[in-house]
Please model this.
Amino acid sequence: MSTKEKIMDVALHMFSERGYEAVSIRDICGEVGIKESTLYYHFKNKKDILDSLISKFKTHIDELLGHIEDIGTEPDKKQTEAAEKNAIEFYMMDSYLFDPFCNLMLRFMMMEQFHNEEMRLLYEKTLFTDPYEIQMKVFTAIAMNFGISETDIEFIVRETHAYMTMLTFKYLLNGELTEERKKAYDRDVHEYMSRKMWITE
Amino acid sequence: MSTKEKIMDVALHMFSERGYEAVSIRDICGEVGIKESTLYYHFKNKKDILDSLISKFKTHIDELLGHIEDIGTEPDKKQTEAAEKNAIEFYMMDSYLFDPFCNLMLRFMMMEQFHNEEMRLLYEKTLFTDPYEIQMKVFTAIAMNFGISETDIEFIVRETHAYMTMLTFKYLLNGELTEERKKAYDRDVHEYMSRKMWITE
Amino acid sequence: MSTKEKIMDVALHMFSERGYEAVSIRDICGEVGIKESTLYYHFKNKKDILDSLISKFKTHIDELLGHIEDIGTEPDKKQTEAAEKNAIEFYMMDSYLFDPFCNLMLRFMMMEQFHNEEMRLLYEKTLFTDPYEIQMKVFTAIAMNFGISETDIEFIVRETHAYMTMLTFKYLLNGELTEERKKAYDRDVHEYMSRKMWITE
Amino acid sequence: MSTKEKIMDVALHMFSERGYEAVSIRDICGEVGIKESTLYYHFKNKKDILDSLISKFKTHIDELLGHIEDIGTEPDKKQTEAAEKNAIEFYMMDSYLFDPFCNLMLRFMMMEQFHNEEMRLLYEKTLFTDPYEIQMKVFTAIAMNFGISETDIEFIVRETHAYMTMLTFKYLLNGELTEERKKAYDRDVHEYMSRKMWITE
DNA sequence: GATGAATGAGTGTTCATTCAT
DNA sequence: GATGAATGAACACTCATTCAT
Model:
């Protein structure tokens, strides 16, 4: 990892725990193992580190969404629930909410959204807008094979999205991201999904 | 309002927007209109302002919960859905999430929960534990009159609670608390409730 | 002397020797014997010290010019050359160019005039505009008693003013203001005056 | 222009406007379009740039004075006033006070003379000593043809030199060297010269 | 000739806090 | 209750300079 990457990595860890203002350049440099003046060779100023992180996050998210774009475009193929359910879990968790960089950025944005409009918009998009649209796309693809009405689909997706969002805040954006909390999230998601499927059946 | 109250009021407004560390004693005093040395007559130090706010919030919440304790303890009384639905709305919104002090504290706790365990516990209790228990209590009281199974009640409450929690994060703890966002929250809550009642019926 | 006055005094001495930018807040505080944070109790920032000095200088100059306003307003009174010559010397030197505060400010302005328009204007007014006008007023008062033509007066004043200005730059605004240089200035002024009077007679 | 020359050129422009200390290596390199480390290939350190400028100025001045050495050494030749007057103007202005390099150096020395003895001596020599000696030499050569007494010559030269020095400070070493100020200087010099000749005649 | 990466010392400024009045 | 004056520690950032490449 280059010095620049190391700085961003350390900065994100600190920002996501204590907030942008509460973290000093000294803190970051101390952890990275460089002098403060060295940091200013790689970044124009403190704000530049923030901007670089946001920029990296945007790229990260765009790539993720790119992967999902194709889902459900081939409705004729028999897509089993199970397959899709796995798909959801994959996209939602491992490279999104569970992904270290992504998760830390979300925590960071959760704190900064109250006084940084750019981060607020990104936070809103990442936690509310995008996941809803993705789930809508996936469920629609599945549901079309079962002849479920559009109105019903919308309501089911809303409820499912709400449940998973609540779980995200409850387990993945609450305190430290421990293995325990990850497991609790997994458990609740599966429990909900299995009951939901049974009920709506 | 006494000077002490004014300090707490100003401090909370600033803390909930910029975070504890990012707000300086100077900032608070400037807004209140006193000298920094004066603040130290009313509070031992900066942490003392924080503690006072937390303490006030705990009292506030306890009073609120006290009001609710009695609900549903008289299951034989015919309690109509409508009455209870209003009750929920009342407790959830006007003196809880919509209440200025409460709302600002929640925002503040949302930021500080990542590095302050005391605030994290309070945040968890206020947004996840307590609302779920209250809704559980209220719905149980209602449902018992309709002969709905306990397992079903639990699932319905979970889903309802999840939906309202999601809306809370989406509208009431996102950026500035504008009238627009309050109305959007209201609208979504009512829309969900009416559809939910119709579906589960 | 109050702390604030002491800061201004020390700052001026340093500014006038090394220039505004080359003098650090640390330098000033070290000499005054206070901590840097204390300086910021008395002054908003470094620029504020500069502004206070300029403001003080303006007041100083205005008071000086106030004294001179009355000169030559009573042309009928027999005003001997000697009396006026003393007057000039008095106003020009003891409370003007020789005055420690004034002299240091002039040196300071001499350095800063190239990149500070406010100081440039003040510098121009203090060294070129005002002295010429004053000398004009005084000489006119004297000359009227001798029936010297206006054109001649103007030329004489111009030459006299030019000579004294040159001497000012040569002796009073050159290196350190030593007793030697003051004496050399005095000597040259008197020598010039006595010869000038003899020649134009 | 070589990189080294470009550095000196840029440095002088900056030094003469903001002073030696206020200009950073960064500033210079930014303007030149090189990295800071590159500058150290051409100059030992910051002081070395200053020394090179002083050295270049000394050479420049010496060449100028070399041209003048011969003037007035042939008193028998009929040298008309006009010719000499032009000579003075030529040496004083175009390759001296008006010359970009020279003018910038004078401004620079004007600022640094208060804390740099080497520059003070050079400043004194360039603005007071040398011009006086040159004018003395030239006027003597002319005056000898008219039988003017040595005492008178000295006084006339002193006054003329003082007038031109004052004008130099007033127009050529005051703020930016604009075309306007150059013209004002020219105008005042000619006006003075023509009146002086007429008066002393 | 030029650059990327680094550094120690220093820049102006703000921090929470104290204490005599 | 409130303030004027002070402080040590920390803040983000810039300085001139070095050195391997």
Remarks:
- Residues 117-144 of chain D form the longest helix (28 residues).
- The domain at 1-43 of chain D is CATH 1.10.10.60 (Arc Repressor Mutant, subunit A).
